[in-house]
Every structure is written in structure tokens, then in C-alpha cells.
Automatic annotation (TrEMBL), chain A:
This is E3 ubiquitin-protein ligase RMA. Its EC number is 2.3.2.27. It comes from Tagetes erecta (African marigold). The chain crosses the membrane at residues 235-252. PANTHER family: E3 UBIQUITIN-PROTEIN LIGASE RNF5-RELATED.
From TrEMBL, chain B:
Pfam families: UQ_con. InterPro entries: Ub_conjugating_enzyme, UBC, UBQ-conjugating_AS, UBQ-conjugating_enzyme/RWD. Its EC number is 2.3.2.23. This is E2 ubiquitin-conjugating enzyme. It comes from Tagetes erecta. Coiled coil: none annotated. SMART domains: UBCc.
Amino acid sequence: MMLLKLVQFTYPNSVYHFVSVDSLSLTNPKFNFNSIHFTFKVRARESSSPRDGGSNDAGDFECNICFELAEDPIVTLCGHLFCWPCLYKWLHIHSHSHECPVCKALIQEEKLIPLYGRGKTQTDPRSKPIPDLEIPHRPAGQRPATAPAPDTNNFLNFGFGGFAPMASARFGNFAVSSGIGGLFPSLLDMNVHGFHNPLYGPRHAYGPRFSSRFHGGHHGHEIFHSRRGHQENNLLKTFLLMFAIFLVLVMIL
Amino acid sequence: MTASSVSSRKVLSKIATNRLQKELTEWQINPPSGFTHKVTDNLQRWVIEVNGAQGTIYANEKYQLQVDFPENYPMEAPQVIFLPPAPLHPHIYSNGHICLDILYDSWSPAMTVGSICISILSMLSSSTVKERPEDNDRYVKNCRNGRSPKETRWWFHDDKV
């Protein structure tokens, strides 16, 4: 069973046509491959064709040295885009100074920012030999700390002071009886937020880190959640759920 | 013959060829005003006609620039000279060599033939006197064996013209 559609859509000043293959036909890899290939060719032609008035969209992503679509793209603090091999050769072989070729701002190599698009992430860049001898690997991105956890769990501080960090450590040390009141809102809360964002789960490359920071403040509905916040919340809620079950069991017995 | 004949005539690298083709395409679509590229099939040597800008002492005069590209352009600057007769200018020698920093020490691979042309036209336009550099005769004598201006140790001192 195979469903074909001719898709047409306009991009700023060009029209793309390509065959879209419905998910059913994914069982036929050969056909799927052809359709992807076709789409790619259309795009490649668009980007290399002469443009009206010398302005073009692909030019925004061209290396300022070789004028090709940037390979191993890297951007300076002053915002100028280059291929890493081009910039490396300029800075280390041909130039007398460490200046940006475009604006002459001083370039510090440790402050260069690599651009990681979606395109080439499948291949390990180290496996790709760069023909011009000893060009080192492109500098890695600097990853700032993730956003701090949101404050959704502060009600714990509210109800019973010292009990807050239970999620990480003091599970066994329970002052149980007063806890029930506080638990059920959290279970409700789980339904609202907890499994709210399943798509982000697998993409998250760094495992959840558990900080034991719970700030004082009101328990309110958080509009903004970081991805990590979700993971922490989920974990906390799982703990709470287990704890509630445990409580119910204790009561029954 | 001019000094350019000695410039390295190694064939252009692949990167250089690709980039020059792009520059040529862009030039054909949107040439810098006041310049005409004389069409040849030689990508490595461009001859460009310069029209003196209106309202300057070079108005209605035409000159020719010869641009030779090295093998590893744009990492290295092209060699740019005026074909005789070179305009009378305090920074242009009678053998066509141009004392302009971006052609030598201040070259950057982000520059293009178009941007060089505009710089040269700007240099011409800001001149108020038609005269040769002070050391013209001495310099030209030194260059007699067809030395390239890129081998000169230039001393850039005048930022007014």
C-alpha cells in the first residue's frame, strides 16, 4: 500500500515541488530514498542559481572565505560565519594576525562557536579525513548550565519543613501522618504537567541531574518549564506515587 | 611587459576556481558601478576597465586594471596593477604598481575583486592632485626586472588619499 502526494510550497522566492511519501510506504526503502534524493536536488539547484539583485537566502550560510555553503561551520563572537578549515588555514598559515577576515575583530580560538545543524550529525567528524593535512578538530561548543529546576514542589516546604529533600535522600525518615494532605495535590499536578511533553524525552542527551534545591515560595502553576525540570518533576512524582502507595499499604495493614 | 608576467602562474586550486567563478557570476549580475570586466576565458587574469568618477579629477578618464590571482586565492591577495598608462596619482607608480594596503599587508580573504575595485576608485576619487609618488623613479628602477608589487615592502603612511 503506497500513498503518493505531489507537494508544492513556496519558499521566499522559489517554488519547491517534491513527492511526499506517506508513512505507509516507509516499508519500501528504495522508493523513499528516491524521493528524498529528488527533493535534495531541487534544493541544491535553487541555492546555486543566480539570484535577483544579488541577494540570496543561501548566502546567509556561506563561508566568508570560500563563499560555499559552510562546511564544519563555525561562527566568531563578532558573528561571522566560516568553514572551520578555511578559518583555520587563514589564521594559522596565511594571516599575520588573529583577526576576523570580515571585520578585523580579534579572534580568540577558544571563543569560536561551532554550529551544529541537523545535517551531518550522523557521521563522526573524526572519521572524515580533511585533505589539507593537520587541521585539528573543530572547537567544541561550550555548553552553559541548564536552567534551574522550576519551583513546583515548594508545597512540601509549606506543609512540613524538614521533609522537603525526601525525593533525593531521606525517604525512610518519614513523618508520615501529616504528609497525606500535601501528597494529593502533587498527584494531581502530575496529571497536568507530568507526561505533558513526551517528545522531548528521547532527545535529551544528558541524563537528569538531581539537584536538591527547593526554594521557598508559593506553589503555583508554572507556565515555563525547562526540559530538565520536567524530568525532575517526573521523578519526584514517581517517588511520591510510590510513597502514597506505600502509605495506603501501611494503613491497610 | 609588466611585472605581472612574473607572478606565479601555477594553476588555481579548486577552492580558488570555485570562488572566482562565484565572484564572476556575481559580478555579471551586479557589477560595481564604474567598472567593466573585459570578458576573456582566463579566470586567473581579469582585466577591468575603470571609469573615473564624476566630480573628481579623473572624471571621464578610463584606465585598465589587471588582476592576477595566485594559486591559493583568496588566502593570498591577488596582484593588482594598472596597465599603462597608469593614472597620475600620489600612490600609483608609473609602472602601474599601486600603494594600497589592502592589496598587501591588510588583505583579507573576505575581500573580493569588487571590493578591491571600489577601494581603488575611492583612492582615485579622494586625490586632489595629479602627480606621481615622490620616490617614483627610484622605485620603478628597482622593479625593472618585472618584479611584482607583492614583493615590495610597502610602507603605508598616508591615509588621506
